[in-house]
Design brief:
The chain has helices at 158-163, 213-219, 231-234, 252-267, 285-293, 319-333, 341-345, 349-363, 382-387, 406-409, 420-428, 434-447, 454-480, 509-513, 520-526, 530-549, 585-589; strands spanning 5-10, 18-21, 39-42, 49-52, 72-77, 88-95, 98-105, 108-115, 138-140, 176-181, 189-195, 222-226, 273-283, 305-309, 395-401, 485-490, 569-573, 578-581. The protein has 601 residues and is α/β, with parallel strands linked by helices. Among the domains are: 1-85, no CATH class; 382-401 and 418-589, Alpha/Beta hydrolase fold, catalytic domain (Rossmann fold), CATH 3.40.50. Strands 6, 7, 8, 9, 10, 11, 12, 13, 14, 15, 16, 17 and 18 form a 13-stranded mixed β-sheet that branches. A 3-stranded antiparallel β-sheet has the order 4-1-5, with no helix packed on it. A hairpin with a 2-residue loop joins strand 6 and strand 7. It starts with a strand and ends in a 12-residue tail after the last helix. 50% of the residues are buried.
């Protein structure tokens, strides 16, 4: 902000003090304020103070103290010979637990790391989330909070660079959410609550790729992203193995998501949102979370629409399996199942994370931590609960990407079979009738003149088994109950390594949030340029239309019909966007009659 002037204006009647928080650079476009990272507070402010940007010196703080924190408005009007930055001001909102303050930049308010639950530490570890302690004064909400304890982000292949996440502090004190809103008024905008993915063991709502600015601005909507406990701290059932001394059900992470939704219900109106129009959406384990919440008793009535992306209603494990995981976890953590509750609660969280990584390898599962069918809060596999009516009245849009599994075969530890014998062996333990499925896929691909080698077939089959078929089964279940839902499939191809990924897992995220070209890594994975920008617009318009009234159809997708087994209308998000009826139908039909192994990892 060279030669810029900052006008600091106290808001009557609070003229004793005013302050200026320079925002993080990412809030400002097109030129960041790299040098303006400082905070000022004054006891005797003039009506307007002028401050030139530059290196802050200790003597500049002589007249300022942090004791008094009344609300104020700060407006920044940079003076430049080129470029422009919209005015920026501080925003304060009253929540049920206290006041929060953040930056309004370029017409958007962003409140980061707002507490929605008490820190789940000490005796609150492995317990349902509790209310946060109310605070006095005004809480700054300008930086993302800590993420749940999780393994370091390594071996993620293309996603390592696409997400380009600043590795935030890992801490058990992680239950925070972030809100982006165009206005702090009574307009009651639709609300979209994002649940991040990461295999129930990784991720955070504070990843830059999930920045809600573009989505909120495009649709005049409120976007919320949340954190929840992960892995051995959020999805481990210790109740059985400890004889109830630690009453963890394995669903504490889901309960965190519910707690965040209750916060939204009780507070979002103050942020310009409509608590009666809440859409939950998420990808991968986030999509599986959305599917689980559709069947999770404590979540009833807290949301009205659902968008499970690349993960639907087929992910939850039995108490027996969850107990096996818990036993392995404690063994690798070096503690007896007969240990006292105090000893278990005192375990170092990093030690638990390391043990969680070990138990995943020991049990041979890509996702050993996941929601548990405890018989109380989650009484059945989510899809079976939906079949029985648990999602009645909830509008649903669900889908996947065409080549989901190619992302994983590009990562270390996910080898693809090299011949038919290895292919049959890889699938034999996962699905019944593997030979028939392989034959159907080979016939369909050869009929279209496409590659049908073992590695290609494996990727295509696993893409559908784990992601596309669960989405279709959910659409079929809803149609059987006379309930409309909408089905989509991403066909846009990642440019990464000359397109070897096709349309892979996670390809939708950058287009949903409009962050596809956020940085060079994301542009390399998602794509950039006019076609990518146009696709982002189509995707966001569909998601926003659905959040507004439950119908995602736009001018570009006016032929998109609700999903039924008769027509199987499916929106294809590629270049261009289009609507197809029963796309890749031969492969889809190969799964008729197959139930075991669908959606499992």
């Amino acid at each position: 902000m060279s030669n810029g002037l900052a006008f600091i204006e106290p808001v009557p009647p609070h003229k004793r003090c005013c302050r200026f928080y320079a925002p993080r650079a990412r809030f400002l476009q097109p030129e960041p304020l790299d040098l303006a990272r400082f905070r000022r507070m004054c006891q005797h402010a003039p009506a307007v103070a002028k401050v030139r940007s530059g290196r802050w010196q200790p003597q500049h703080t002589a007249a300022f103290t942090p004791d008094s924190r009344p609300p104020c408005r700060v407006t920044v009007r940079p003076v430049r010979s080129r470029g422009s930055v919209e005015e920026m001001s501080m925003s304060i909102v009253e929540t049920q637990y206290g006041r929060v303050e953040s930056v309004r930049a370029n017409g958007m308010h962003a409140f980061l790391a707002v507490p929605f639950a008490a820190p789940p530490v000490g005796e609150l570890r492995w317990r349902p989330p509790a209310d946060p302690t109310p605070w006095g004064g005004v809480r700054r909400a300008v930086d993302f909070g800590a993420q749940s304890w999780q393994p370091a982000l390594e071996g993620m292949g293309p996603l390592q660079f696409a997400f380009n996440a600043d590795r935030a502090e890992r801490h058990e004190d992680c239950l925070y959410l972030n809100v982006w809103t165009p206005g702090l008024d009574n307009r009651k905008r639709p609300v979209l609550v994002w649940i991040h993915g990461g295999g129930f063991s990784g991720g955070t709502g504070g990843t830059p790729i999930y920045d809600g600015t573009a989505l909120a601005r495009r649709g005049d909507a409120v976007v919320v992203t949340i954190n929840y406990r992960l892995g051995a701290l959020g999805f481990v059932n210790l109740s059985e193995v400890t004889g109830g001394r630690v009453p963890a059900t394995g669903n504490e992470g889901l309960l965190d998501q519910v707690k965040a939704l209750r916060w939204v219900r009780d507070n979002i109106e103050a942020f310009g949102g409509d608590p009666g129009r809440v859409t939950i959406f998420g990808e991968s384990a986030g999509g599986m979370s959305v599917g689980a919440l559709m069947a999770f008793g404590p979540a009833a009535g807290l949301f009205h629409r659902a968008i499970p992306q690349s993960g639907a209603c087929n992910t939850a494990q039995s108490v027996a399996r969850a107990t096996e995981v818990a036993e392995g976890l404690l063994e690798l953590a070096g503690v007896s199942a007969n240990a006292s509750a105090a000893e278990l609660l005192a375990l170092d969280p990093e030690r638990l994370v390391e043990a969680g990584t070990g138990v995943s390898a020991k049990l041979g599962g890509a996702m050993v931590f996941q929601p548990c069918i405890d018989g109380v809060q989650l009484t059945d596999l989510p899809l079976d609960a939906v079949v029985a009516g648990s999602a009645d009245g909830i509008s649903v849009m669900v889908g996947a990407a065409r080549d989901e599994w190619r992302l994983f075969t590009a990562m270390p530890g996910f080898p693809a079979p090299e011949d038919d014998a290895a292919l049959q062996q890889a699938l034999a333990g996962r699905i019944d009738g593997a030979e028939a499925v392989i034959s159907a896929y080979r016939s369909a691909r050869e009929g279209r003149g496409e590659a049908a080698d073992a590695a290609t077939l494996y990727s295509a089959i696993e893409s559908d088994r784990v992601f596309r078929v669960p989405a279709i089964r959910l659409g079929e279940a809803l149609a059987a109950r006379g309930q409309e839902s909408f089905q989509y499939l991403f066909t846009w191809e990642s440019p990464w390594e000359d397109g070897r990924l096709g349309s892979p897992h996670a390809i939708d995220i950058g287009f949903v949030f409009g962050t596809h070209a956020l940085n060079p890594g994301s542009a390399e994975f998602f794509g950039s340029g006019d076609a990518a920008d146009a696709l982002a617009g189509h995707v966001q318009d569909a998601w926003l239309a659905f959040a507004a009234d439950g119908d995602p159809r736009t001018h570009a997708l006016e032929d998109w019909q609700p999903y039924t087994p008769d027509t199987r209308a499916t929106a294809l998000f590629g270049d261009p966007v289009s609507v197809a009826f029963d796309p890749w139908g031969e492969e889809r039909a190969a799964w008729d009659g197959v139930s075991a192994g669908i959606g499992t990892l």
